[in-house]
Amino acid sequence: MPARCRLFTAALLTGLLIGPMSATASQSPTPTRAQLLAKSRSAEWRTPSPDNLLVMQLPSGRVLIELAPDFAPLHAANIRTLVRQHYFDGLAIVRVQDNFVTQWGDPASDDHGDKSKLRSLGKAHDTVPPEYTWAIDPKLEWTALPDGDVYAPEVGFSEGFPAARDPAIGQEWLTHCYGMVGVGRDNGPETGNGSELYVVIGQAPRRLDRNLAIAGRVLEGMPLLAGLPRGEGEMGFYTKPSQRTPIESVRLASELPAAQRPAIQVLRTDSPTFAALLDAQRHRHDAFYKVSSGKVGLCSVDVPVRRQVPPPATR
Amino acid sequence: MPARCRLFTAALLTGLLIGPMSATASQSPTPTRAQLLAKSRSAEWRTPSPDNLLVMQLPSGRVLIELAPDFAPLHAANIRTLVRQHYFDGLAIVRVQDNFVTQWGDPASDDHGDKSKLRSLGKAHDTVPPEYTWAIDPKLEWTALPDGDVYAPEVGFSEGFPAARDPAIGQEWLTHCYGMVGVGRDNGPETGNGSELYVVIGQAPRRLDRNLAIAGRVLEGMPLLAGLPRGEGEMGFYTKPSQRTPIESVRLASELPAAQRPAIQVLRTDSPTFAALLDAQRHRHDAFYKVSSGKVGLCSVDVPVRRQVPPPATR
Questions:
Q1: How far apart are CA B218 and CA B225, in angstroms?
Q2: Which of A189, A228, A293 sits opposite B207 (nearest CB)?
Q3: Which of B157, B180, B192, B197 is placed for a possible disulfide with B185 were both Cys, Cβ 3.0 to 4.6 Å?
Q4: Cross-chain residue pair B235–A13, CB shorter than 8 Å
């Protein structure tokens, strides 16, 4: 029996399967992500401030979220206040809408929830100014992505987050890419306070850009948030309390004893290695890929993280 | 205690929550998807041929896939041959890679599988010509999306499927949007035969366009495929057989007794209602949305389906 088809990313995995069947055997294959990251220098990685790093413990594991106080300082501060009060402990993931968002917060705030059981926000604010867009700050990193975008005049990365700009009006905003964490709100633009958060789990819903505050990005644990059964109620809300995923705790890394703080680093988006990764994504040629895309879309870029800091490189 | 923030798509749900807080109260709100679809005419919907409709039964429910023989006729024919032999019955979902694909087929074809247990393809072909791109066929519907695209010179919809074109070379291809079903292969371009299929479950991996054959689109049941636990092995493969989701059966609708055939229809992508939906997505203004996106990306469009054929409209 002839060899049966393998699973379609064999070459993505090894990146080196150049063989007699390759159409590109005469070229050297594009380096893989792992190969490029292995060659990165220590200085190309940054360690998120433990005051900006949320550690959310679910029964299935840990989710790490980096807050974005450079862009949404008031929301980040309110979320920190909530977390320091242990506001989220014992709350739940209440909504998973397919190809859209996973959302967590107080089940009592649900349309069908018992409003008399709403948890107090304590010292946190009940309303927060929108922070949907802001004046471009020249002091912050901006690494433009020259490949174009359907939704914004200019896109790129700022301090590790995907972002868009309209230079004509000098405004900037974070974009609703996979893994970005936004602040749920009611109709009033100031009604989002961080007690309900959502994360994008499907095709980037860019129509939400400039309509909601983005408070951060999931650095680790997306499979735990995206791989949940979808809620069968309207907008993906779970219809039975037993379907919700309980949140055991949410802590700031800075609240944890030093030994328990997650050792996570994020590749700097203004680093040469990040640029090399984008280029490899645009111009991939190897045994598997017959044509390269030539382009990379903003939300197709997964800014690398690493969990452990390796020993200093030899150079 | 003041009202707490509701969950962020309250207005998306009702579409009519115009109240004193709305910034756009002076305008009438953009009609919702449900409202636009409710006004559609019967002639705007098409019923997929039962020879092109796959019914995949999982323990959790039913998945409906429309094959795309207009674009991948050889792959569609091979998949039909496999299905008629009940090839997929008792096979499994073997891989769920976060923000990428869910894939099903013969677990024995896995890298760690027992090759001696591979199921025979029977009368189906072991290799199939690529069908990655093709000459534009002027006889087929083409509804251009004028909003632009990062990856292709021109994008739009053809016979209900998202597609891209390069008019300079007269070529067309289907695009890897959410819910599109592709044909897994090994490195050789002809090694995909339809016995391993995958569906896009995250941000559209457009780098795969023109590198793999797209055989169809999931019309119903995406939550059953996307809401699965992610595999912990490399590339999202499950490491334990017990983690796989068994496939009870896959049938062509045409094989089923008429009474059991799914009554599903797809909105024609050259219909006025489809155009109105795109426009509503671009220019949404209502109590919730503060600014509209002005644009709609190809893979942000979910071509509507309906499960039951309503009685004839009054006009």
A1: 10
A2: A293
A3: B192
A4: yes
In a domain, A91, yes or no: yes
DSSP single-letter state for residue B237: B
- Give the number of other Cβ atoms within 10 Å of residue B37's Cβ: 18
Cβ atoms of residues A293 and B209 within 8 Å: yes
Inspect the interface and report whether the beta carbons of A203 and B147 lie closer than 8 Å: no
Give the burial class of B174: count Cβ atoms within 10 A of its Cβ; 0-12 exposed, 13-18 middle, 19 or more buried: buried
Cα distances from B178 to residues A34, A232, B73, B228, in angstroms, run 26, 19, 21, 15
pLDDT score, position B113: 72
pLDDT at B169 exceeding the cut of 70: yes
Nearest-angstrom CA–CA distance, A236 and A232 = 6
Q: What is the DSSP string of B97-110?
A: -TTSEEEEE-GGGS
State whether residue A38 is helix, strand or coil: helix
Domain count, chain B: 2
Which ipTM did the prediction report?
Answer: 0.91
A145 in the same domain as A225: yes
Average pLDDT over every residue of A44-54: 97
Instruction: Evaluate whether A251 touches A54 at the Cβ level (below 8 Å).
Output: yes
3-state helix, strand and coil shares in percent for chain A, rounded to the nearest 5: 20, 25, 55
**pLDDT per residue over B54-86, tens digit each?**
999 999 999 999 999 999 999 999 999 999 999
CA distance A227 to A231: 12
Asked if residue B124 has pLDDT above 60, the reply is yes
Query: Is B108 exposed, middle or buried (CB count within 10 Å of its CB: 0-12, 13-18, 19+)?
Result: middle
Instruction: Report how far residue B94's alpha carbon sits from residue A5's, in angstroms, rounded to the nearest whole number.
Output: 14
Chain B residues in contact with A117 by the CB 8 A cut-off are none
- Burial status of residue B165 (CB atoms within 10 A of its CB: 0-12, 13-18, 19 or more): buried
Phi/psi of residue A195, each to 5°? -80, -15
Say whether both A218 and A159 belong to one domain: yes
Q: How far apart are CA B107 and CA A43, in angstroms?
A: 43
Write out the residue range of the structural domain in which residue B294 sits: 10-46+267-306
Q: Which two tokens stand for residue A121?
A: 């926000």
- Is the residue at A211 inside a domain? yes
Give the residue from A22, A31, A60 showing the smallest Cα distance to A220: A60
Q: Which one, of B309, B68, B282, lies nearest residue B177 by Cα?
A: B68
**Do A225 and A177 share a domain, yes or no?**
yes
- Asked whether the beta carbons of residue A5 and residue B288 sit closer than 8 angstroms, the reply is no
Partners of A119 on chain B (C-beta within 8 Å) are none
Other CB atoms within a 10 A radius of the CB of residue A170 amount to: 11
Helices marked H in A153-260 — which ranges? Answer: 222-226
Indicate the residue of A186, A209, A293 with minimum beta-carbon distance to B151.
A293
Q: Could you tell me how far CA B93 lies from the centroid of its own chain? A: 17
Cβ contacts of residue B309 below 8 Å, gap of 6+? B42, B45, B47, B263, B265
DSSP B21: T
DSSP string, B108-141: GGSTTS-GGGPPP-TTS-S-----SSEE--TTS-
